[in-house]
């Protein structure tokens, strides 16, 4: 079995949104024609248009979330998961943590300069 190749960077976001927008415009024009013919009333037309807008908004949100999830997955591909027993070794004991701290240089070991006129 071969591994599945990672998803390409090319996004299908624009073509899908354009096709959804075209379908929404077609449904809206059909609803207007039905209202002009007297088949549906103005209140029903309003309900149909609200539902069409909600469907288009939901599709936009889902596609945007999917696009962001793909982008995040691509960024995490190089990560190495922590070992299963990480809590046994982390956080390190206090003595070990201090031993691993870098030693201060000789320039930092000097006393801080004194204030106004306290020079020896």
From TrEMBL:
<keyword id="KW-1133">Transmembrane helix</keyword>
<feature type="transmembrane region" description="Helical">
    <location>
        <begin position="44"/>
        <end position="63"/>
    </location>
</feature>
<protein>
    <submittedName>
        <fullName>Uncharacterized protein</fullName>
    </submittedName>
</protein>
<keyword id="KW-0472">Membrane</keyword>
<feature type="region of interest" description="Disordered">
    <location>
        <begin position="71"/>
        <end position="120"/>
    </location>
</feature>
<feature type="transmembrane region" description="Helical">
    <location>
        <begin position="12"/>
        <end position="32"/>
    </location>
</feature>
<keyword id="KW-0812">Transmembrane</keyword>
<feature type="compositionally biased region" description="Basic and acidic residues">
    <location>
        <begin position="108"/>
        <end position="120"/>
    </location>
</feature>
<feature type="compositionally biased region" description="Pro residues">
    <location>
        <begin position="80"/>
        <end position="94"/>
    </location>
</feature>
């Amino acid at each position: 079995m071969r591994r599945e190749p990672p998803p390409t960077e090319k996004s299908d976001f624009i073509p899908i949104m354009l096709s959804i927008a075209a379908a929404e415009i077609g449904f809206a024009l059909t609803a207007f024609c039905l209202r002009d013919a007297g088949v549906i009333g103005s209140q029903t037309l309003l309900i149909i248009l609200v539902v069409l807008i909600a469907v288009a908004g939901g599709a936009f949100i889902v596609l945007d979330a999917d696009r962001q999830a793909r982008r995040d997955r691509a960024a995490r591909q190089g990560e190495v998961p922590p070992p299963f027993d990480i809590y046994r070794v982390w956080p390190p004991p206090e003595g070990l943590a201090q031993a691993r701290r870098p030693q201060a240089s000789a320039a930092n070991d000097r006393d801080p300069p004194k204030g106004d006129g306290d020079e020896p």
